[in-house]
Design brief:
Rossmann fold; single chain; 6-stranded parallel β-sheet; YkvP/CgeB_Glyco_trans-like; globular; 5-stranded parallel β-sheet; transferase activity; 13 helices; transferase; Glycosyl transferases group 1; alpha/beta
C-alpha cells in the first residue's frame, strides 16, 4: 500500500467498522436491515464516490451484492453464518478475500478461493459488553431467544435441563444488564458453532458454562481456566457441571476473572479490525482486483448463474427476484458484461 487512507464501503452489519479507522481505512456504512441487492453502481450512488474496497459483513441474508466479478475495487466477505448457509463458499468465490468466523470451515473456503485469500476471524465481544456491579439474582441463567419454531433444539435442551436444574432462568434482553446478575451463565450452541455469546458472556465478567465445541474454541481459550464446559446436548452433564460451579463460588470468580482478561487481551473489536486490515492490505498490495478483472473466471460465472437463478425463484420480493434473474441472464450471455 502507498500509505494513503483507503475508503471502504462497509455493507451489512457494523461489527468493528469504527475500529478500522485506527488501521488507516475510512469506512462508510451501508447498513442492511433486510434483503437487498446492490451492484457497484448502486454503491457509488449511495456513497457519492467510488470506494477503494467493498466489504460485506454477514447479515445472514440472501446475497446482497451482485456483479462482484466486475467490481473495479477490492472486495471482501466477512462470513459468520457458514454453519447455516451451505451456499456461502460459492458466493465467497465472487470476492477477492474472505474472513471466516468458524475455524473448521476455513478449509472449505480456502479450497474455493485459495489459501492466501482466506483468513480466520473469530467472534469477539463489543465494547459495551463489560462487567458491572449488580445484585446476584439467578443461579443459572440463559439469555436469548427460545422459540420452538426458530430454535427447536435450544428449546428442547432447556426444557430437559429445567427438569434437572430447578434454578435455571431463561431471559431475553441485554447481555450486559442480565449476565452480571447470574452466578453462572449458560451458553448453548444449537448448531455446534463457536458463537458470539461465549465472548460476550466472558466480557461481561460472567462465570460461563458452555458446550465442548470445535471451531477453535480450545485454541482461543482454555477450558477449566477461562470457563467450564459440558458435553453438548447432554442436559444431565450440564446440570451436574452447573451444580459443581454453584457449590464453589471461588472457582466461579476465578473463571470469570480469567475469562474477562482473555477477552480484553485478544478478543475485542480492535483485535478483529487489525486482522481484517492486514488481510485487506495484503489484497491491495497483491492487486487482486486488477488480476480478477484481467482474467475472468468463466467457470465461476457458470456456477454463479445457478445461484442467481435459485434466488430469483425463491425470493418473495418481486423487485429482488428480478435483479437476481437479470444477473443470471447477464452471466448466461443475455446481457452485456
Amino acid at each position: 500500500m502507498d500509505g494513503r487512507e483507503r475508503s471502504i464501503a462497509w455493507v451489512g452489519g457494523m461489527y468493528f467498522m469504527e475500529d478500522m479507522r485506527d488501521q488507516g481505512f475510512r469506512p462508510v456504512a451501508l447498513p442492511l436491515t433486510g434483503p437487498a441487492v446492490l451492484g457497484f453502481e448502486d454503491i457509488v450512488q449511495r456513497l457519492g464516490f467510488a470506494p477503494d474496497a467493498v466489504v460485506y459483513t454477514d447479515r445472514s441474508l440472501p446475497p446482497p451484492l451482485v456483479g462482484l466479478e466486475r467490481f473495479p475495487c477490492l472486495t471482501a466477505f466477512y462470513c459468520i453464518d457458514s454453519h447455516i448457509h451451505s451456499w456461502y463458499p460459492l458466493y465467497a468465490r465472487s470476492f477477492d478475500l474472505c474472513a471466516v468466523s468458524l475455524r473448521d470451515h476455513v478449509d472449505a473456503f480456502a479450497r474455493a478461493l485459495g489459501q492466501d485469500r482466506v483468513a480466520w476471524l473469530p467472534p469477539f465481544a463489543a465494547r459495551h459488553h463489560r462487567p458491572r456491579q449488580a445484585d446476584t439474582e439467578f443461579d443459572l441463567l440463559f439469555v436469548g431467544t427460545v422459540d420452538p419454531e426458530t430454535t427447536p433444539l435450544r428449546c428442547d435442551f432447556l426444557s430437559r435441563l429445567g427438569r434437572l436444574a430447578p434454578g435455571l432462568a431463561v431471559r431475553q434482553g441485554s447481555f450486559p444488564e442480565l449476565m452480571p446478575r447470574a452466578r453462572v451463565v449458560l451458553n448453548i450452541a444449537e448448531r455446534g458453532d463457536l458463537n458470539f455469546r461465549v465472548f460476550e458472556a466472558l466480557a461481561c465478567g460472567a462465570c460461563l458454562l458452555t458446550p465442548e465445541l470445535e471451531h477453535g474454541q480450545n485454541e482461543l481459550f482454555t477450558p477449566g481456566e477461562h470457563f467450564a464446559t459440558y458435553r453438548a446436548d447432554d442436559a444431565e452433564d450440564c446440570a451436574a457441571k452447573a451444580r459443581e460451579l454453584l457449590d464453589d463460588p471461588q472457582r466461579c470468580e476465578a473463571l470469570a476473572q480469567a475469562g474477562l482478561r482473555a477477552v480484553d487481551t485478544a478478543h475485542r473489536p480492535r483485535h478483529r479490525a487489525r486482522a481484517l486490515a492486514a488481510l485487506l492490505r495484503q489484497g491491495l498490495d497483491a492487486g487482486l482486483a486488477e488480476r480478477r478483472l484481467a482474467t475472468p473466471d468463466l467457470a465461476l460465472r457458470r456456477e454463479l448463474r445457478l445461484l442467481w437463478l435459485h434466488w430469483a425463484e425463491h425470493s418473495d420480493n418481486p423487485a429482488l427476484a428480478a435483479r437476481y434473474l437479470a444477473e443470471a441472464r447477464r452471466l448466461a450471455g443475455g446481457a452485456r458484461p
